[in-house]
Amino acid sequence: MRQGEPVRIVLDNRLEQNTTVHWHGIRLPIGMDGVPGISQPPIEPGESFVYSFTPPDAGTYWYHPHANSLQQLGRGLAGPLLVEEREPPPFDRELVWMIMDWRLGADAQIAAGFGNMMEAGMAGRIGNTVTINGVVPADEPVHAGERVRIRLINGALARIMALRLQGHRPVIVAIDGQPCDPHEPPDGRLLLGPAMRIDVVLDMQGEPGRRYSVTDDFYDGIDYALTHLAYTKAPPARHHPSDAPLSLPHNPLPEPDLKTAERRELLLQGGMMGGRGMRTGGMGMGRAVWAINGVSMTGDGHAGMPPLTTLQLGRSYIVTLRNDTAWWHPIHLHGHSFRVLHRNGEAVPHSIWSDTVLLAPEDSVDIAFVADNPGDWMVHCHVTDHQTAGMMAVIRIGDGLSGR
Fold first, then answer.
1. Is the dihedral of CA 284, 286, 292, 295 positive or negative?
2. CA 291/CA 277 separation, integer angstroms
3. How many CB atoms lie within 10 A of CB 134?
4. pLDDT number for residue 238
5. Distance from C-alpha of 72 to C-alpha of 185, rounded to nearest angstrom
6. Are 327 and 269 in contact (CB under 8 A)?
7. What is the pLDDT of residue 111?
8. SS (H, E, C) 22-74
9. Who's near 109: CB < 8 A, 6+ residues apart?
10. Per residue in 148-182, pLDDT tens?
């Protein structure tokens, strides 16, 4: 897609079950958000639905179902969604790495067992095979001296990734599609929870003919090589890094007024080895092991879900997310991008905007945004097992009906 240009997408459901599409990270009208029962009726087998919207922001996004999401996303029904800048940035080349994992049996087929409640109460369904763009990664050929933009997308159900690029110094230029101050990640480690995206720029200063590993070392003792940057033997395209600016043009995000912002708090509760003070009550399908502010809503979205909180249209809000659990949670807010202000009381540098923020156990994160998009918007953990087992809620902005 191209920033500011309208798009029209027809979904023709040829599955044997209902489905929807959620355009993850795109600020669009509520009627196009793809949450069954909340923003649209489920699209039944044999039916079609037209999604039409104009993406206001350039950046790296993705799309996936929000119906029977454990099975549909877990079996690969997802893809990258790129909104191109009005003027192309000065990079030599661009790569898209949509990283997903799969639990495969000995026959190389996807294993059954989606929705295992023991896993749901812990880290979720983590696979045993990791792919880039749907295939087991081979080497990534690169050319010495070139400047490459890599769009990283974590499309896994539950796997958190921490990528290290041997012999290279990646510079982060955007997070969740939104440009930030260009900066190198702490310790050179690119941390990606499920649904998160990072755009990095690499100046390829390696030796021609050499291979450099890209490793994921998030989980203790089970790090692995995701792929290798394999340099051709050709002479460098340039002998010194490009002096073109790294900054991407900013998107038209409404800046929250922190002085007048109202405050809200979302307390994440539940799971194995946690759940202090958890008093769940709510609605949905199946058992609940997680909650937000003591309320569990299970599944993928249902008609009649009451709002956890109601926000005034056009007002600025600061929301504190507190993780009162023993597990990691990438928390996603639909329909908005938010500024990440503080983590555990410390100011977050580099002007970070996100739509999905990763909380470690016992973390507290302050986010701020303008409630400028009316509707009933989902907020949930993007470890899909956590969402479907209760860590999901509705935030109502305005009357909750606009745009439907």
1. positive
2. 11
3. 12
4. 85
5. 33
6. no
7. 96
8. EEECCCCCHHHCCCECCCECCECCCCEEEEEECCCCCEEEEEECCCCHHHHHH
9. none
10. 999 999 999 999 999 999 999 999 999 999 999 99
Q: Find where tokens 């179902």 sit.
A: 65
Phi first, then psi, for residue 165 (nearest 5°) are: -110, 100
- Looking at CATH, the fold of the domain delimited by 7-83 is given as Immunoglobulin-like (2.60.40)
Question: What DSSP character marks residue 19?
Answer: B
Q: Given 3.30.450.20, 2.40.110.10, 1.20.1260.10, 2.60.40.420, which CATH number is that of 262-397?
A: 2.60.40.420
Note the pLDDT tens digit of each residue in 251-269.
999 999 999 999 999 999 9
What whole-number distance in Å separates Cα of residue 202 and Cα of residue 168?
7
Q: For residue range 266-311, what is the model confidence (pLDDT) as tens digits?
A: 999 999 875 444 444 444 445 899 999 999 999 998 888 999 999 9
CA separation (Å) from 342 to 16, 318, 324?
45, 11, 17
Residues 6+ away with beta carbon under 8 Å from 106: none
The residues, any chain, with a CB within 8 Å of residue 111's CB and separated by 6 or more, are: 103, 104, 105
d(CA 347, CA 77): 37
What strand order describes the sheet that includes 59-64? 22-24, 59-64, 79-83
User: Nearest 5°: CA angle at 12, between 25 and 114?
Assistant: 65
- Tokens 């249902």, residue? 302
Res 401: pLDDT: 56
Largest CA distance in the chain: 64
Enter the tokens of residue 76. 């690969």
**CB atoms near residue 23 (< 10 Å):** 22
pLDDT tens readout for residues 172-209: 999 999 999 999 999 999 999 999 999 999 999 999 99
CATH of domain 93-231: 2.60.40.420
Burial-class residue 10 by CB neighbours within 10 Å (0-12, 13-18, 19+): exposed
Q: How far apart are CA 65 and CA 34, in angstroms?
A: 7
Cα–Cα dist 296/275, whole Å: 12
Confidence at residue 274, expressed as pLDDT on a 0 to 100 scale: 59
pLDDT tens digit sequence for 29-71 = 999 999 999 999 999 999 999 999 999 999 999 999 999 999 9
Residue ranges of the chain assigned to CATH 2.60.40.420: 7-83, 93-231, 262-397
Convert the pLDDT of each residue in 338-367 to its tens digit: 999 999 999 999 999 999 999 999 999 999
